[in-house]
Design goal:
The protein is α+β, with helices and mostly antiparallel strands. It has four helices and seven strands; from the N terminus they run ββββαβββααα. The chain has a single domain (8-153), classed as Alpha-Beta Complex (Nucleoside Triphosphate Pyrophosphohydrolase). Strands 1, 2, 3, 4, 5, 6 and 7 form a seven-stranded mixed β-sheet that branches.
């Protein structure tokens, strides 16, 4: 994609944990257009005062779900900039992986109508907003490569 001054810089997060011996992912239900009412990964626009993309990701995670993680705990999944991925215009998202030792209570905030832990098999059958199904699959692959998912399943 050719980057322009109007390209939105965004971040998305794949947040995984084990609950009752099952792999779960943290999803939000979007409260605003586009894709209002649809399940999505937590994330959003990079703000001018975000020091790094990692900081933008931790800020968005906190704003939308109430979960606070250190930027240094995030692994980069990849960059997503396929034309049309966001109906609001050109966007480039950097996606991050966070693996938590156990489910943390969540609360919806900002533009998230709800925030919830969802069994991974349910999430994979959902029609997630934007290109979040692709990001989820890429995040799961990275988690396996890094050994996170295997380690979680041993708990």
């Amino acid at each position: 994609m050719r980057e322009s001054a109007t390209t939105m810089k965004t971040v998305d997060l794949v947040v995984l944990t084990i609950w009752n011996r099952h792999l779960e992912i943290l999803l939000i239900r979007r409260g605003k257009a586009p894709h209002a009412g649809q399940l999505a990964l937590p994330g959003g626009r990079v703000a001018r005062n975000d020091l790094t993309l990692h900081h933008a990701a931790t800020r968005e995670l906190w704003e939308e779900t109430g979960i606070n993680v250190a930027p240094s705990t995030l692994d980069i999944i990849g960059r997503y900039d396929t034309p049309g991925r966001d109906p609001r215009g050109d966007s480039e998202s950097t996606a991050f992986l966070s693996v938590l030792a156990g489910p943390i209570p969540v609360r919806a905030g900002d533009d998230a109508a709800t925030a919830e832990w969802v069994p991974i098999h349910d999430a994979l059958t959902e029609n997630l907003a934007f290109d979040h199904t692709q990001i989820l699959n890429d995040g799961l692959a990275l988690s396996e490569r890094l050994g996170h998912t295997t380690a979680l399943r041993r708990q």
